[in-house]
Amino acid sequence: MLHTVNKSPFERTALQSCLGHALDGASVLLFEDGVYGALKGTGVSGEVAEAMGRVKFYVLGPDLRARGLREDRLIDGIQVVGYDGFVDLVTSHDNVQAWL
Amino acid sequence: MSEIKKFMYVNRKAPYGTIYALESLEVVLIGAAFDQDVSLAFLDDGVFQLTKDQDTSGIGMKNFSPTYAALGDYDVTKIYVEKESLEERGLTLDDLQHLTYEDEDDDWAEKDSIRLVTREELARIMDEQDVLLSF
Amino acid sequence: MVNEGPYNHQASDSAYQFTKAALEKGHEIFRVFFYHDGVYNGTRLGVPPQDDRNITQLWQELAEQHDLDLVVCVAAAQRRGILDPDEAKRHGKDADNIAPRFRISGLGQLIEAGIKADRLVVFGD
Prior knowledge:
The structure holds three protein chains of three kinds. Chain A is α/β, with parallel strands linked by helices. Chain A has a single domain, classed as Hypothetical Protein Ychn, Chain: A. Chain A is 31% helix and 20% strand. Chain A has a five-stranded parallel β-sheet. Chain A is globular and about 30 Å long. Chain B has one domain (6-134): DsrEFH-like (Hypothetical Protein Ychn, Chain: A), CATH 3.40.1260. Helices cover 24% and strands 24% of the residues of chain B. Chain B has helices spanning 20-31, 66-70, 83-88, 119-127, and strands at residues 6-11, 37-42, 79-82, 100-103, 109-112, 114-117, 131-134. Chain B has a five-stranded parallel β-sheet with strand order 6-3-2-1-7. In chain B, strands 4-5 form a two-stranded antiparallel sheet. In chain B, helix 1 (20-31) links the parallel strand 1 and strand 2. By secondary structure, chain C is mainly alpha-helical. Chain C has five helices and three strands. Chain C has helices at residues 11-24, 55-66, 74-80, 85-90, 108-116; strands at residues 32-34, 70-73, 102-105. A three-stranded parallel β-sheet of chain C has the order 1-2-3. The longest helix of chain C has 14 residues, at 11-24. The interface between A and B is medium-sized, with 15 and 17 residues.
């Protein structure tokens, strides 16, 4: 299953709720304001890093760059994808849950 | 048209403050005519949609909460409510409407539509779906 | 499914970029369904500043190139004043505002899309 999160974890609980429901082997794509959840050294980085042992994380590059964020700010192991990669994630998983 | 898919309506928002709860319900009612394997999930603030004693007379908005009780008549009989979401909000099942349906396979016996599930159980049920409509 | 109007949220922009990327990769987009405030994406009367993107127009161009089915939910549209000529006439309104290439139809179109398409992706707030 692919989970998408488009909200900042500092404003909403979408990321936390997503992590609470993502089964082992699931994928999580952070996009729009959700990309802030991919940064290291934040109040939620620990939670994300811990989940990385069982869930694969992706972040949308165009949304990162739009917000002035470079890849070196990301938690190690989070993969940056473009919109084409977003499409591939959707097609390579059986279903998609948007944590709005 | 013989293909039956598992459709889940994922409700995570409280009613009235935004229109998502009401318009989600409108999709459920229309979708019921399509004979798919339908379920509703209420988690996070979505559990507030099902509370009883809603009275909107003071805010000038339509109280659409009675519609949930009619879902059984539309053959929408699987309503999953997440236990942890209730507890985090200080709610119990007693705070929610009692939703029922008549089971045609069991001599029209009246049964509960609400199934209290843990986060882990709900995660597995979500994983089995073909289509997740989130609001 | 696009659940938010243009400009206020990024939802429609993201959905557009996603749809464009999917088409470029050779996938078929069965339908784009606009719901909630997403119906506002279908007004032809928006006049964004010259130096900004015109989201409605971007959708129209993509629809033109790929014969995309852009459907605005009728129930959500009526509430919010998005009308095609038929709806305007039926409700006694003096004007319509639906943009070319968008069409107004029922919620059944969303369910049908869920049944027929291999995947359904939701963009919202």
